[in-house]
UniProtKB/TrEMBL annotation:
GO terms for molecular function: methyltransferase activity. GO terms for biological process: methylation. Keywords: Methyltransferase, Transferase. The keyword Acyltransferase does not apply. This is FkbM family methyltransferase. It comes from the Bacteria. It comes from Neorhizobium petrolearium. NCBIfam families: fkbM_fam. InterPro entries: FkbM_mtfrase, SAM-dependent_MTases_sf.
């Protein structure tokens, strides 16, 4: 059976080219399991004039949902894996979305580097900044680095959506984020461990955010500014 051009999930047509989307990812999409929690939560929490900053754009699914919401003012999305840029563009095109600023690179705090290695794996959602011990199949690519504080100052997001495979630890540690009112974050406990989960909660608490249990589902957590 030939591979389809796209799979429709929660009303979004997601491009699935074989070169970038593995059979495992394709199966999750067909079963409706790909980023379904974030997708179901996002539309419910967007307010008038929302400016959404996405860290980890994946296949363009979340940025499409954000951009199609009539309350949204602007969307900027960062994805480290350069191979996904064309997939994101195709997903946006399939859904007639043309109001997302998509950039390739990673967001870090206070890094002086202009670029750094990123490890791309067959199932793209397992790609990360860390190489696993003894790993031989990950492809190392150099990607641009952007300072998170500079991006927040420039774009002035009111909401951050973050799914970066363990990179959430320490990212927001006591950081002042005046325009940000909501952070929708996927926690990767198998990667960061219980101490990492505690660190994320502690860091965001120091920055004045609380856990919104009404709009959180298992590992996908919404933090709101008090």
């Amino acid at each position: 059976m030939s591979r389809p051009e796209y799979v429709e999930h929660l009303g979004v047509k997601i491009a699935v080219p074989e070169a970038a989307v593995s059979d495992t990812v394709l199966r999750f999409l067909k079963e409706g399991r790909y980023e379904s929690r974030e997708g179901k939560i996002l539309d419910k929490i967007i307010d008038d004039g929302e400016r959404v900053l996405e860290l980890g754009a994946g296949l363009g699914f979340i940025s499409t949902i954000a951009a199609r919401n009539k309350k949204t003012e602007a969307v900027r999305a960062y994805e480290a894996n350069p191979a996904l840029a064309s997939v994101i563009a195709a997903t946006h095109r399939l859904n007639s979305v043309d109001n997302v600023d998509v950039r390739t690179g990673v967001l870090l705090r206070g890094s002086s580097a202009n670029e750094m290695p990123f490890y791309v794996r067959n199932d793209f959602w397992g790609s990360s900044l860390s190489k696993k011990e003894g790993e031989k199949n990950a492809k190392e690519v150099m990607v641009p680095v952007f300072d998170l504080a500079d991006v927040i100052y420039d774009f002035r997001p009111t909401m951050i959506v973050c799914d970066i495979e363990g990179g959430e630890v320490g990212l927001f540690d006591g950081m002042p984020m005046p325009p940000v009112k909501k952070i929708l974050l996927e926690l990767h406990q198998p990667v960061i461990g219980p101490a990492g989960v505690k660190s994320v909660f502690d860091c965001l608490s120091k920055s004045g955010f609380y856990y919104d249990q009404d709009h959180s589902m298992t590992g996908v957590v919404l933090f709101r500014k008090l």
